[in-house]
């Protein structure tokens, strides 16, 4: 009769003194792997010009059909994306768009805090994608 009680207590005490694995998010955050597939970034040349040449390969290969591009041409015929959007609400973070890009013009960052209050807010435009993602949820303690 008392044996199961002692057994249960032993288990409780074992977990009570073992190393805690729960993180107090967002005060504490996991370090993700360097190859984590998070929010995309459109890369730029040192001059600040976007590397993308609007070849449409990423939009073509995307299984979720969440990349939309409208291409345009500079006076010297260099193509660039006038509009470039990724709908993160549809994206499955497979990374195919990064793999297929011939210009290394799109990368995936380690940013994983992507939740929004509306579906529209999950559609990122060219300007947003050219900026590195910022941490979304800052610890109230650290923020003071
Ligand atoms: S990660 Fe995959 S699903 Fe997301 S935009 Fe790139 S190709 Fe599409
Ligand atoms: S991001 Fe790369 S694959 Fe996609 S349109 Fe631009 S150059 Fe082509």
What is the structure about, briefly put?
The protein has 144 residues and is of the alpha+beta class. The chain has helices at 2-17, 57-61, 96-100, 126-130, 140-143, and strands at 40-42, 67-73, 79-87, 106-108, 123-124. The protein is built from five helices and five strands; from the N terminus they run αβαββαββαα.
Helix content: 10-25%
Strand line-up in the sheet with most strands: 2-3-5
Whole-number mean pLDDT: 93
SSE order, one letter for each helix or strand: HEHEEHEEHH
Q: Tell me what portion of residues adopts beta-strand conformation.
A: 15-25%
Provide the list of bound ligands, each named once.
iron/sulfur cluster
Which structural category do the helix and sheet elements fall into? alpha+beta
Total strands: the figure is 5
Q: Low-confidence stretches at least 5 residues in length (pLDDT < 50)?
A: none
Would you state the CATH class? Answer: Alpha Beta
Helix count equals 5
Tell me the layout of helices and strands.
Elements: H1 2-17, E1 40-42, H2 57-61, E2 67-73, E3 79-87, H3 96-100, E4 106-108, E5 123-124, H4 126-130, H5 140-143
Antiparallel strand pairs: 1-4, 2-3, 3-5
The chain binds iron/sulfur cluster (2 copies).
Main location: membrane
Cofactor: [4Fe-4S] cluster
Pfam family, one: Fer4_7
Mind explaining what this structure looks like?
NDH-1 is composed of 14 different subunits. Subunits NuoA, H, J, K, L, M, N constitute the membrane sector of the complex. With 144 residues, this protein is an alpha+beta fold. It has a single domain, classed as Alpha-Beta Plaits. The chain has helices at residues 2-17, 57-61, 96-100, 126-130, 140-143; strands at residues 40-42, 67-73, 79-87, 106-108, 123-124. The N and C termini lie far apart (52 Å). The mean pLDDT is 93. It binds iron/sulfur cluster (2 copies). One iron/sulfur cluster is lined by residues 52-58, 69, 100-101, 103, 105-106.
């Amino acid at each position: 009769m008392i044996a199961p009680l002692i057994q249960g207590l032993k288990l409780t005490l074992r977990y009570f003194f073992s190393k805690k694995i729960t993180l107090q998010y967002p005060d504490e955050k996991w370090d993700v792997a360097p190859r984590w597939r998070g929010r995309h970034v459109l890369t730029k040349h040192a001059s600040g010009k976007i590397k993308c040449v609007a070849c449409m390969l990423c939009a073509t290969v995307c299984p979720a059909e969440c990349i939309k591009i409208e291409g345009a041409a500079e006076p010297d015929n260099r193509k660039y994306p006038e509009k470039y959007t990724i709908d993160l609400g549809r994206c499955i973070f497979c990374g195919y768009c990064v793999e297929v890009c011939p210009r290394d013009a799109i990368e995936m960052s380690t940013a994983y805090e992507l939740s929004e209050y509306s579906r529209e807010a999950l559609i990122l435009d060219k300007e947003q994608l050219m900026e590195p993602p910022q941490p979304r949820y800052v610890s109230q303690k650290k923020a003071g």
